[in-house]
């Protein structure tokens, strides 16, 4: 144990030495918290049960509405888009100052998003084919594929907003917010077509993205605007849930008549405003915490593998669930119906097992997120020299 602590301290020291003095580490901390929130949220509210024969998807939120507040804690996508808008706008401004063409800039920004996707798609194409040839029921295969592929919508939306940064970085957040309100009003107030809601997939996430871009221009240098976002967003969310007929859960619930997330509703966007306000208020405490080398090293390493963690966390959960089928009985919290607090307690005990499986996936596939280009082809923003092999990795953080 002492040797392990010594090695970790040495690694933390290397990360600390390789990080530029002026880097805003609170941004990286917010991004790490957002990714980990999504991962833990999926592990807690997604269940694969054998109740109907084969594997089918359900959720404890479907059976226990009292757990809806869990979604308020772990549905952190707005924070990720806030950070994305901040970093994207700042990166674009820096690229323009250096004379970097838009094509080169956007190619660099998107390559790290999509390099790891190819590995996920390739593995699951082979896995799905093998399962079908092995006699696994089609519905079970489709259930698993849906869990793997459904997070990709997030990457597509994030990539589209990143590519559109030159057009939307100075757009006031009130504009897409008004679009979301108009779409919801037409859908729910005047019986408009359901397909119209998909406009909110772009408009809804554009709200925190434009707030992030405004942040990069110094719009939240004082705490008052962030406090107003938090208070106003929380009050609007409560009003929409209590009197507007919106669901309390901020994630989709199987069998529910309405989802706040698929597509995003005004309630989800208002909740996102509150989250963004809280995140902006948390910058100073996070910055102080990140001055500790060990804490910063953990955040830096999560950021290095953010897409790998995001893309493979469902696979890790499904691998554990599938291996559990070898047991002679359904394992509580893994295969049983999530209809009691006992299931919730059992699921909490499975989280370390899911994390261990994710660590295996990380070890196998993290290289797909690494930039393998030569130094003269790599991103222009780089950290000072550091001992191999960490130097190249930290450079990737510095340009993320």
Structure write-up:
This protein is mainly α. It folds into two domains: 344 residues, no CATH class; 31 residues, no CATH class. It is 68% helix and 2% strand. It has a two-stranded antiparallel sheet. Helix 2 packs antiparallel against helix 5, helix 5 packs across helix 13 and helix 11 runs parallel beside helix 13. It starts with a helix and ends with a helix. About 5% of the residues have low confidence.
Topology, pairings included?
Elements: H1 2-18, H2 25-45, E1 47-49, E2 56-58, H3 60-63, H4 69-74, H5 77-98, H6 102-133, H7 138-149, H8 152-163, H9 165-168, H10 174-189, H11 199-216, H12 223-242, H13 266-281, H14 283-289, H15 293-304, H16 306-324, H17 341-365, H18 390-398
Antiparallel strand pairs: 1-2
Core attributes:
400 residues; 2 domains; 18 helices; 68% helix; 2% strand
Query: How many DSSP H or I helices?
Result: 18
Q: How many β-strand stretches?
A: 2
Helix content: 55-70%
Low-confidence stretches: 374-392
What's the gist of this structure?
With 400 residues, the protein is mostly helical. The chain has helices at 2-18, 25-45, 60-63, 69-74, 77-98, 102-133, 138-149, 152-163, 165-168, 174-189, 199-216, 223-242, 266-281, 283-289, 293-304, 306-324, 341-365, 390-398; strands at residues 47-49, 56-58. It has 18 helices and two strands.
């Amino acid at each position: 144990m002492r040797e392990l602590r010594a090695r970790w301290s040495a690694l933390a020291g290397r990360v600390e030495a390789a990080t530029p003095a002026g880097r805003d580490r609170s941004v990286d901390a917010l991004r790490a918290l957002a990714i980990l929130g999504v991962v833990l949220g999926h592990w807690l509210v997604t269940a694969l049960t054998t109740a109907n024969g084969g594997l089918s998807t359900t959720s404890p939120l479907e059976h226990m509405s009292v757990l809806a507040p869990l979604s308020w804690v772990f549905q952190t996508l707005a924070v990720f888009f806030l950070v994305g808008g901040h970093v994207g706008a700042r990166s674009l401004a820096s690229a323009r100052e250096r004379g970097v063409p838009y094509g080169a800039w956007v190619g660099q920004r998107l390559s790290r998003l999509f390099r790891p996707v190819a590995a996920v798609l390739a593995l699951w194409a082979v896995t799905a084919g093998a399962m079908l040839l092995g006699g696994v029921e089609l519905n079970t295969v489709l259930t698993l594929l849906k869990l793997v592929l459904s997070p990709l919508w997030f990457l597509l939306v994030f990539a589209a907003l990143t590519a559109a940064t030159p057009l939307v970085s100075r757009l006031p957040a009130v504009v897409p917010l008004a679009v979301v309100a108009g779409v919801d009003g037409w859908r729910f107030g005047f019986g408009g077509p359901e397909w119209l809601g998909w406009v909110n997939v772009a408009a809804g996430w554009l709200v925190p993205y434009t707030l992030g871009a405004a942040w990069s221009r110094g719009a939240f240098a004082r705490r008052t605007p962030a406090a107003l976002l938090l208070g106003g967003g929380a009050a609007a969310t409560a009003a929409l849930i209590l009197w507007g007929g919106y669901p309390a859960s901020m994630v989709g619930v199987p069998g529910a008549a309405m989802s706040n997330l698929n597509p995003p509703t005004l309630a989800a966007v208002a909740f996102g405003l509150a989250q963004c306000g809280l995140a902006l208020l948390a910058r100073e405490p996070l910055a102080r915490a990140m001055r500790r080398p060990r804490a910063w090293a953990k955040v830096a390493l999560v950021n290095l593998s953010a897409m790998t963690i995001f893309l493979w966390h469902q696979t890790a959960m499904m691998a554990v669930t599938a291996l559990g089928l070898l047991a002679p009985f359904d394992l509580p919290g893994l295969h049983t119906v999530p209809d009691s607090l006992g299931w919730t307690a059992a699921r909490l005990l499975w989280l370390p097992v899911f994390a261990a499986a994710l660590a295996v996936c990380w070890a196998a596939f993290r290289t797909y997120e690494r930039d393998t280009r030569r130094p003269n082809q790599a991103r222009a923003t780089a950290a000072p020299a550091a001992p191999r092999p960490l130097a190249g990795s930290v450079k990737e953080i510095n340009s993320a």
